[in-house]
């Protein structure tokens, strides 16, 4: 098991997704953020079922940065309750995992 995670959040528009992605990478809270356009989300919010077009952000980060990552997303996100869930990376390409480590470490 590694200390790296894949975290997910969603945004309602491309400008916000790009702003979040760039911010997280610039601050080294994420080594990479991939934006997947046009996901359709169904969820219950304030008693009603919602059907929304969103963008999915796939965030490559470390377990130790999750608290700071959460704070930044909550600070910058337009949603009242932005999604943030993280899944551990149990294994992977040694070269890719080493790259993640380098990009998440302040020089």
Please, could you describe this protein's structure?
- With 107 residues, this protein is an alpha+beta fold.
- It is 33% helix and 38% strand.
- A 4-stranded antiparallel β-sheet has the order 2-3-1-4.
SSE diagram, text form:
Elements: E1 4-11, H1 14-26, E2 32-45, E3 48-62, H2 66-76, E4 85-88, H3 94-104
Antiparallel strand pairs: 1-3, 1-4, 2-3
Gist?
By secondary structure, this protein is an alpha+beta fold.
> Judging from the principal axes of the Cα atoms, what is the shape?
elongated
Number of distinct helices: 3
> Which stretches of 5+ consecutive residues score pLDDT under 50?
none
Report, as a whole number of angstroms, the end-to-end distance. 25 Å
Q: Percent of residues in helical segments?
A: 25-40%
Mean pLDDT: 96
Strand order of the largest sheet: 2-3-1-4
Taking the sheet with the most strands, its summary is: 4 strands, antiparallel
The proportion of residues in beta strands is 35-45%
Number of strands: 4
Structure classification: alpha+beta
- Work out the radius of gyration: 14 Å
> What order do the helices and strands follow?
EHEEHEH
């Amino acid at each position: 098991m590694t200390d790296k995670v894949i975290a997910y959040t969603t945004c309602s528009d491309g400008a916000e997704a790009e702003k979040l992605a760039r911010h997280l990478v610039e601050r080294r809270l994420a080594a990479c953020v991939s934006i997947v356009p046009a996901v359709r989300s169904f969820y219950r919010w304030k008693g009603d079922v919602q059907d929304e077009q969103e963008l999915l952000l796939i965030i490559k980060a470390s377990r130790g940065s999750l608290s700071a990552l959460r704070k930044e997303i909550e600070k910058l996100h337009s949603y009242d309750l932005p999604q943030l869930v993280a899944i551990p990376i149990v294994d992977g390409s040694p070269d890719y995992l080493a790259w993640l480590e380098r990009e998440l470490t302040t020089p």
